[in-house]
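Ticket opened by: R.M.
Priority: normal
Category: complex prediction / small molecule

The reporter submitted a protein together with adenosine-5'-triphosphate and asked that the result be attached to this ticket for the collaborator who will pick it up next week. Submitted input follows.
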Amino acid sequence: MKPAIRVHQLACSYYRTPVLRDLTFAVNPGECFIVIGPNGSGKTTLIKTLAGLLPVSGGDIFVQDRPLRRHKKADFSRRVAYVAQTGAEDSPFSVREMVLMGRAPYLGVLGVEGAADLEIARQAIAFTGLSHLSGRPMASLSGGERQRAHIARAICQRPEIILLDEPTAALDLAHQIRIMDLMAGLKNEHGTTVVMVSHDINLAAMYADRLLLLVEGRAAACGPPAEVIDEKRLAGAYGCRLLVDRSPAGPWPRVSLVPDTEVGGRKSEV
Ligand SMILES: Nc1ncnc2c1ncn2[C@@H]1O[C@H](COP(=O)(O)OP(=O)(O)OP(=O)(O)O)[C@@H](O)[C@H]1O
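Result attached by the on-call engineer:
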């Protein structure tokens, strides 16, 4: 089985300051691969680099066995969708118009969408539970609704690989699970390869086939959650106290933070 993405000795720098160093890993087709790591460890830099949005300073990235730099833009956009971290939005477009932009890599020179494109957009909007909001301006949506609209745009692209940067950040509990279930649905029903950055190690442990733990731009560990989520390793990587046990919700590890100082008048006894 050829990897969906293969990264070999990747290095990236901002103004000669190295951010990613000697990074080597592969993502299997149809796998949910989640990148975790402390602030500033290079997660966003890595996902943007995989999306072809940042130059590399060393090493190679292969997407579906072809060097990333050799992919033609439209062809790459048909294969790979990228969902950035969403912040404030002042876009004048409606949800429907924004989602339909996902069809751009498939349109002819006139850039006119056909009935099939409109139907794919409708399905993507329904899949993300936004049908009732499809006529609303993007700028009027809540953070969670906006996040789902951007995911709908990516789904509308019908990609084989979807790259997401912290898709559950700033979402309430129900929407976090909903977004993760959407990704699991894409993976299970369409065989989509999902590569995601997340700060939520517990969500990552639940949904990832494999995790990559980045520390100072290097791979500190890569493998199934049960292997990567190790108490000592995470405590060292994040520089805080934590406990790892088995989740009561299912067969995956659970991480609990341990307060260092007195909390609510009680001193931690751990
Ligand atoms: N445009 C930029 N110019 C210069 N340095 C940058 C730029 N973007 C990021 N960096 C630096 O690169 C390092 C990695 O940043 P990156 O955003 O990739 O980390 P991250 O793991 O995604 O962090 P976080 O968890 O805080 O989102 C940080 O030290 C950051 O300050």
